Amino acid sequence: MASFHVIAGATEALEHTKIRKIGVADLVDALRRGVDDFMVKPSHIVFLCMIYPLVGVVLAAWTSGANALPLLFPLVSGFALIGPFAAIGLYEISRRREASLDTSWRHAFEVRNSPALPAIAAVGIMLLAIFITWLLTAQLFYQHLFGPEPPESISSFINEIFATGRGWTLIIMGHVIGFVFAVVVLCTTVVAFPLLLDRDVGAYEAIHTSVRVVLANPIVMAVWGLIVAVALIIGSVPVFAGLAIVLPILGHATWHVYRKVVEPPAATGPAR
C-alpha cells in the first residue's frame, strides 16, 4: 500500500517540475489528439452511465421547489469548477493509450491504485471547497439583491431576473464573480491532476506547477480557458446532452496540454 504522502510526494522532498512555453497551435494539436483519443475509445459511455444520473439527482433535489431556483445557474455552472477532478479517469485513459497499454473503459478507475491517490484526493477536496464557496457566494449575492424570501414561482423568478435592473445586476456581477472562481481553478489545477497521475510529486507541487504554467503562458492558458468555457456552453445547450461528447474530448485534450507544457522528468524509466 502506498504511504500516505500528500505535500512532498513519494520522495518526501519537494520536486521542482520544469515547464515549457507553448503556443495556441499546441492547444489545437492537443484538441486534435483529444478527439482522436475519444474516437478510438468513446469514453462518453462512462459519463452517460455515471455522471448524468448523478447530476440529474442533484438538480432534482436542489430545484424541486421555488426555494432552490436562485441556485440553479450557480449549481449547473459550478460543475465546471470540479470538472478537472471529474475528468481524472479520462486522463488515465489517455496516459495508458500513450504508453500503449490496454485502454478499456474500466481502466478509468485505475486511479484508485495510484501512489499519488492521497495527493489527488487533497486537490479534489480543494476543488470541492471552491465549489461550495461559489454556491454560498452566489446565494449571498442573490439575497443581497432580492432579499431572503424565495421567488413565488418560476415565471416570477424569470421576470425578476430578465425584466428588472437588479436582475441584470445579478446576471452581470454573477458572471464576474463566477469568472474569478474559474480563474482560480484554472490557475491551480490546469495540469495538477495529469501531473499527479504521471508523477507522484505531491499536492503542493501539482498546484504550484499549474500556477507556474499559467504565469509562463498567460495568453495561451487564457485561450485554453476560453475554449473550455465555450465548449461547455455549447455542450450544455441541448439539455446537457452535448456534454457527453464535449467533456471526454476536453478531458483527453487536457492530458495532451499537460504533456506539451510540462517537461518529462530527467531520470529515465517509466513514470509509474
Count, helices: 12
Mean pLDDT: 84
* Structural class assignment: mainly alpha
State the end-to-end CA separation: 15 Å
Q: What's the β-strand tally?
A: 0
Fold and architecture overview:
- The chain has 272 residues and is an all-alpha fold.
- The chain has 12 helices and no strands.
- Helix 6 (117-146) runs antiparallel to helix 8 (165-189).
- The relative contact order is 0.20.
List the helices and strands and how they pair.
Elements: H1 24-40, H2 44-62, H3 72-78, H4 83-86, H5 88-98, H6 117-146, H7 154-162, H8 165-189, H9 192-198, H10 203-216, H11 218-236, H12 243-261
Helix pairs in contact: 1-12, 2-12, 5-9, 5-12, 6-8, 6-9, 8-10, 9-10, 10-11, 11-12
Question: Which tags fit this structure?
Answer:
mainly alpha; single chain; 272 residues; globular
Question: Brief description of this entry?
Answer:
With 272 residues, the protein is mainly α. It contains twelve helices and no strands.
